[in-house]
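User: Sequence in, structure out. Go.
Assistant: Echoing your sequence, followed by the structure tokens.
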Amino acid sequence: MEGNYSEGKSHMDKERTEKLKDFEKSISYTFNDISLLDNALTHRSYVNEKQEFLYKDNERFEFLGDAVLELCISDILMKKFPDYSEGQLSKLRASLVNEQALSELAKNFQLGDFLLLGKGEESSGGRNKSSILSNTFEALMAAIYLDSGYEKTYRLISNLFRALIENGFDQTIYRDYKTYVQEISQNKFKVIPEYVLIHQYGPDHDKIFEIELVIPNILKTTGTGKNKKDAEQKAAKKAIEELEKQ
């Protein structure tokens, strides 16, 4: 896979190159073609402000990186959980390859500090936005894949996700039931689930909330919890269980 995959004119000077080399140390990977890393860390807002230079943003890399991540994580989960069903594996993968999980991984090695952003995005806190960090993480995985191929990318992704899989998996899965049921609903039924508060009871310091999840004309489930988010997650968990039976 090694080759010249540069997406456009480079804006790397000596200072930028040195900064990128520092980033390489943080992810324990050295690029054969460091311009791929530069491209992966270039946000469209930066390119929009410098159109006369014909720079390219990282959105094409995001497209590829999303597929690379899904393939590698699927491979990892298939090997780690040989007895799991397709539905269980899909749920686990969705809990790992999503905006929240990817942005947290990006923050672990201060990815935001190395982004090229436009002035407007910079002033609005773009370096810390979960959407930008997760998209750039995907672009980074694409850059590594283009630079060295599948095997090295797989090993790096395995290392990056190891702690999340082994130590925080249950919590991650629980946190992401809502995301997963929304993905199922949008893909299969082209609608977004609705959450409705149908009941709350108990004293102010110890309330219980009951939430109903509705996928119109498909199913309804309910969940209860100490707060609305907890109740929504439980309703989403029940909905996933029902959808997997269909």
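User: And one key feature?
Assistant: Residues 213 and 221 are 5 Å apart (CA to CA).
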